[in-house]
């Protein structure tokens, strides 16, 4: 059973297109190497938020790995723009925020912006692979709750989204699951 599962994961990873958006060239190289080592074959790169938005429009990747701290448009602004259905052409693209800045407010803000997963730098190939497989093999439906647009929250009692969405939208039923993970 484990080998059958690993074959499915391997096939999934080989077929995925990933975009890395990070202003640090060295970090892009590190993440690219991690992705190649876990079997990702198609990797695009963007050196800032503006070119990242253009790359999402152009390549429509299966997953975006997005840095938080960048000049001009930071990762939060990029996520806000992407998660604008009707305005941005690919609002449902899964986003993994990868940041060395992991203060609680950033993790909560990432959730409010519709980020699928949040990982701490330095990141391991296993952590990156685990998050990509979780996103692709078990995608959460995209939902609109007031001003929020993004993956259905894992916890129905997530207070920051309730505040952002307003009381009436927050009472909508949501599937229980684990909170956003930091690694």
Q: What can you see in these coordinates?
A:
With 183 residues, the chain is of the alpha/beta class. Helices cover 44% and strands 17% of the residues. The protein has a single domain, classed as 3-Layer(aba) Sandwich (Rossmann fold), CATH 3.40.50.2300. Strands 2-1-3-4-5 form a five-stranded parallel sheet, with helices on both faces. β4 (95-99), α5 and β5 (117-120) form a beta-alpha-beta unit.
Short key terms for the protein model shown above:
183 residues, alpha/beta, Rossmann fold, 5-stranded parallel sheet, two-stranded antiparallel ribbon, 44% helix, globular, disordered C terminus
Summarize the structure.
This protein is an alpha/beta fold and 183 residues long. It has helices at 2-15, 25-38, 49-59, 75-82, 104-112, 125-137, 159-165, 167-170; strands at 17-21, 42-46, 63-67, 95-99, 117-120, 142-145, 148-151.
As a percent range, the share of helical residues equals: 40-55%
- H-E order: HEHEHEHEHEHEEHH
> What number of domains?
1
**Number of H/I helices:** 8
Question: How many strands in all?
Answer: 7
Strand line-up across the major sheet = 2-1-3-4-5
Rg result: 16 Å
Unreliable segments of 5+ consecutive residues:
167-183
Mean of residue pLDDT values: 86
What global shape is seen?
A: globular
Report, as a whole number of angstroms, the end-to-end distance: 28 Å
Structural class, from secondary structure content?
alpha/beta
CATH domain class name: Alpha Beta
Lay out the secondary structure.
Layout: H1 2-15, E1 17-21, H2 25-38, E2 42-46, H3 49-59, E3 63-67, H4 75-82, E4 95-99, H5 104-112, E5 117-120, H6 125-137, E6 142-145, E7 148-151, H7 159-165, H8 167-170
Parallel strand pairs: 1-2, 1-3, 3-4, 4-5
Antiparallel strand pairs: 6-7
Helix pairs in contact: 2-6, 3-4
